[in-house]
Amino acid sequence: MRFSNPLLFYVALGSVVPCQAAGARIGTLRGGESERELSTPVPPGDSITFVSANDDDTVSVRLRQTFVGGFGTCGSGNTIDQALQVFSVYKDPSTGLPTCVLKRNVDACWDEVKKIACDATTNTATIDLYIRDELFSANFHQVKNPKVGNCLGTGDVLGRTIMVTATFDCLDGGEGPGSICSSTADCSEGLWCAPPSFFMDPPFCKPYAALGQICGGMVAPGMEETCDPVTAFCSTTMSCMGAFDFGGECMAHGGECNSSSDCAENQYCDGVCKPRRALNECCDPVQAPCEVGLICTDVDVFGQVASVCL
Known about the structure:
Elements: E1 2-3, H1 6-14, E2 48-54, E3 58-64, E4 82-91, E5 98-107, E6 111-117, E7 124-132, E8 143-144, E9 157-158, E10 161-169, E11 191-194, E12 204-207, E13 214-215, E14 232-235, E15 248-252, E16 267-269, E17 273-275, E18 296-301, E19 304-309
Antiparallel strand pairs: 1-10, 2-3, 3-6, 4-5, 4-7, 7-10, 8-9, 11-12, 13-15, 14-15, 16-17, 18-19
């Protein structure tokens, strides 16, 4: 977790406390109130604390009001011991947009857990907590108005306000090799969710097969190999040879395509650009055409008809 400008936080708070130490009395500030007091200055970490990093790309944090009043007087409902306004600004997990939640007359017993969305670029989650009260200096305690939602109007500056910012690391984007998964989306980059070795075992994250490695085919449970669909495909050029379940080989493709006109001359389109079939390789006149100069021809293979490039 990282705090933004913690030095500025202490400087701003220090501009009030040395002149009016905790316990000092201040004149009437809110209707019917005759005395107010600041709580003892506390580290900013007490206002925003980490709870958990979650697997739904969020971070849970705990918020507290630690500037006005104290635990000895909170819960009484007396506004003397309450901050006038407290609001937080963070990325809403449900919308992915900044949101602002405002509370009024918040005492030191206030304790709330918030879920904040992670930023996909930085893989971090940030929340800003604003505390506004007449106790704070109108000149020294000024912050920029975030202007999110309808929290505090459209003015550029908020007076008598302290802001605490905290940034937390999110979970890495997926689980490592051997981790239990329900789909490939649960696994880290470069891994896929493979079937278990035994029927009662759960699926697990497994690295994709490298280029040139065997893929597909009839293998024992848990031994399956799959190519990374981003860069490769499983080339099964011998799949028509009899009743045997031949495996294939991971080969690089030429990228996504809509038709063969999107591919190089020696390639055809099958969702991605693939090499045309070579001599004696299985083929299909439309789905898997032969190289230029070869013809997809039906031949007898082990008593069955197979189409190969000749």
